[in-house]
Design brief:
By secondary structure, this protein is an alpha/beta fold. It has helices spanning about 15-30, 50-60, 75-80, 85-90, 105-110, 120-125, 180-190, 200-210, 220-235, 265-280, 310-320, 335-345, and strands spanning about 5-10, 30-35, 70, 100-105, 125-130, 155, 160-165, 170-175, 240-245, 255-260, 290, 295-300, 305-310, 330. Interacts with ribosomal protein uL14 (rplN).
Length: about 350
């Protein structure tokens, strides 16, 4: 028996998921593919969105017409907390043998697989199927393999790597819809057409349950919210914090906030701290967070407020402030610094 495993947030499940997995199932000859919505990706910042129960039901609807070849599995949602693939694989090994299990991942995850918890043990327990897009150069030689994989390759044939662990890595090129889940969520939140990206049953479920309505409904005053976010950045030693009311010049958001960090790590740290502070104060997660891994330009999207956090040298290259010069700059004050200054002894 050959069994595929594919995990993800399925937020929401879209035609790209369906087309990719049905193609992989046929090409690999899988008897069964486990579709596993996660509880929380340990490598990503939490984001606003439907509950696990909603994501589970949408995944079931997305694959409901494909018979017994696909099984939507709630193993990670039941376990709760951060979803580690190693834990899921060990659970599935109670039912299947190692040689029968194939973990399906994208090329981006293949490149960074060493960031996964206990990745070496995973490469002993399961085979890997890497899905790639047209134009992706399948690694053929040692100089093209990721560093973490090189010591484990016993034999290489075009499209397949045999590992010293007894497992294999296979590459499958897909020609499917290029869909960004974050862009799809944005379309849904602002009411833009998304029918061609979603299975009909999933689209109907989203409408019936009022999903993907912006969490910003919990925020009554976005000017005050922008000032709160600015103060949070001031408290993390952000550089050149500026905010603009851009309602007259932008249809995508009402306010924008920009700040710099002294390093890429500083920029990423500011984003992570901002997400925590907003969650604590407003019980709202961002709609999306982009660029936090690199830290050169991090974008935190709260719907009516977009926050841009730069490594300072990168900010100087893009000069985003020029885009908003026809908006109204808010007068920001670092209240923490002002309070400290007023409390300081007078000379």
């Amino acid at each position: 028996m050959k069994v595929g495993i594919f995990g993800g947030s399925f937020n929401p499940p879209h035609n790209g998921h369906v087309n990719s997995l049905t193609t992989v199932q046929k090409k690999m000859g899988f008897d069964l593919v486990h579709i596993i919505p996660n509880s929380q990706n340990p490598l990503k910042i939490p984001m606003d969105g439907p509950s696990g129960d909603h994501r589970l039901e949408m995944a079931r609807l997305a694959f409901s017409t494909y018979g017994d070849a696909f099984r939507v599995n709630d193993i990670e949602l039941k376990r709760g907390g951060k979803s580690y693939t190693i834990d899921t694989v060990k659970e599935l090994l109670k039912e299947y043998k190692s040689k029968e299990l194939f973990l399906i991942i994208g090329a981006d995850n293949f490149e960074t697989f060493s960031d996964w918890k206990d990745y070496k043990e995973l490469l002993e327990l399961v085979n890997i199927v890497v899905t790639t897009r047209p134009g992706y150069q399948i690694p053929e030689g040692e100089d093209e393999w990721p560093d973490y994989l090189t010591p484990l390759v016993a034999e290489s044939d075009f499209g397949t790597l045999e590992l010293t662990t007894g497992r294999s890595v296979e590459f499958i090129t897909l020609d499917d819809l290029d869909i960004s889940s974050s862009e799809l969520r944005k379309k849904l939140r602002v009411g833009r057409p998304a029918e061609k990206f979603l299975p009909l049953a999933v689209e109907s479920y989203i409408k019936q349950n009022g999903l993907y309505k912006s969490g910003s409904q919990k925020i009554s005053n976005f000017k005050n919210f922008t000032e709160f976010c600015a103060q949070t950045l001031f408290d993390k030693k952000a550089i050149a914090v500026k905010a603009f009311d851009i309602q007259s010049v932008s249809s995508s958001s009402d306010y924008t906030l920009i700040a710099s960090g002294t390093s890429t790590r500083h920029a990423s740290s500011m984003a992570e701290n901002l997400v925590r502070a907003v969650k604590d104060e407003f019980n709202v997660y961002p709609l999306s967070v982009e660029g936090v891994d690199e830290g050169r330009w991090v974008v935190v999207d709260y719907g009516a407020l977009i926050v841009h956090l730069f490594y300072d040298f990168v900010r100087q290259e893009y000069r985003l402030e020029d885009l908003w010069k026809n908006g109204t700059e808010l007068k920001l004050q670092d209240k923490t610094a002002a309070a400290a200054a007023s409390a300081a002894p007078k000379a």
